[in-house]
Amino acid sequence: MNRPAPHGAAHFQAQTATAKAIVGADVGGTYARLGWTLLQPGSDLQVQGFRKYACADYPSLAAILRDYADWLAAESDAPAIGHAVVAIAGVLDGDTLLNTNLAWPVSLAATRAQSGFQSLELINDFVAVAQAMPHADAAALHLICGDAAHGTRGPALVLGPGTGLGVALYLPGGNPPVLASEAGHAALAANTPQEQDVLRLLARRFAHVDNERVLSGPGLMNLYSCLAELQGTAPRWQDPAELIAAAQNQGDALAVQSIDMFCAWLGALAGDLALTFGARSVYLTGGITGHLSGPLHGGGFQKRFLAKGALSAALQQVPVWRVEHGELGVLGALAWHVDNLPTS
């Protein structure tokens, strides 16, 4: 794809005066991804030693960090590393991380003490993802709709349906450069009669029906079960992987309908948020979008993204990119650290 990295920055140049190695971690509700980099004047920021952990296999965040620190210590070509930056889903409330999707509670003080690193920073996971966007390779970006030549400068909206729904806004030249958001927990809006029927069923199950009740991996299963109930059938599939495979390989009509509706509903929210923030570009990340590449490019997302009445024209040129980059959160955690280093 003949397109530069977003916002005109293809690579990130480290600003440190001397070489320094740090670890970056991207921790979600299902997986933790870790890597390290050597910050060197004039060198590109590159993720090395990438490893992926299933969060449910470990008793705490500290245990994952300790395992990675021990692995690094045993690697002959890895430098000594004393600092880690952890991008993690949730909001810090004093010493406690508030999150509904993690496998375990997180105490900042305990994690620092038990991690195996001399110092540790916690940042919001989607702040890191948005921070990484200026540094994503052009080959990782796949245009869904809009004008690829438009939106190289200006606010960039980043959405990531995964275990939850992450939302952030990248502001080139801003201070700070990323506006964190909990839009995934804002109330879900229904725009079609069928969406209203689904929302009515969800309202019976949950006191608060937020966006990620539908627009996430678990949300996709909520949507599927509601559609099954509306059609008077029993759900056959138990997790998103099964459901997606049933739609792609078996032609299961209800699975196909669920996925098509998911993509259209995601398009509606993306359009709403793009108008709300005046976004000049939109990026879809997260594990679910990688598995739904075909449906996302199938037209339903685009139709609902643009269905904004008199303001539809404002979104016609806004490019929407699907991002395939397995190390994006780790790269963003490292970039966040470097972006916040003193420049003098």
Radius of gyration, CA atoms, in whole angstroms:
20 Å
Sketch the major β-sheet.
Answer: 6 strands, mixed
Low-confidence blocks of residues: 1-18
- As a percent range, the share of strand residues is 15-25%
The oligomeric state is: single chain
Number of domain modules: 2
In the sheet with the most strands, the strands line up as 8-13-12-9-10-11
The counted number of beta strands is 13
Overall SS class: alpha/beta
Descriptive overview:
The strands form three sheets. This protein has a six-stranded mixed sheet, sandwiched between helices. It has a five-stranded mixed sheet with strand order 3-2-1-4-7, with helices on both faces. The protein has eleven helices and 13 strands. It is globular, with a radius of gyration of 20 Å. Helix 1 (61-74) runs parallel beside helix 2 and helix 5 (217-231) crosses helix 7. With 344 residues, it is of the alpha/beta class. Strand 10 (165-170) and strand 11 (178-181) form a beta hairpin. The model is unreliable at 1-18 (pLDDT under 50). It folds into two domains: 6-132 and 327-339, ATPase, nucleotide binding domain (Nucleotidyltransferase, domain 5); 138-324, 3-Layer(aba) Sandwich (Hexokinase, domain 1).
Task: Give me a quick take on this structure.
The chain has helices at residues 61-74, 108-114, 125-132, 193-205, 217-231, 240-249, 253-277, 287-291, 293-296, 300-306, 328-339; strands spanning 20-27, 31-39, 48-54, 83-88, 91-93, 96-98, 119-124, 141-145, 156-161, 165-170, 178-181, 281-284, 320-323. By secondary structure, it is of the alpha/beta class. The chain has two domains: 6-132 and 327-339, Nucleotidyltransferase, domain 5; 138-324, Hexokinase, domain 1, CATH 3.40.367.20.
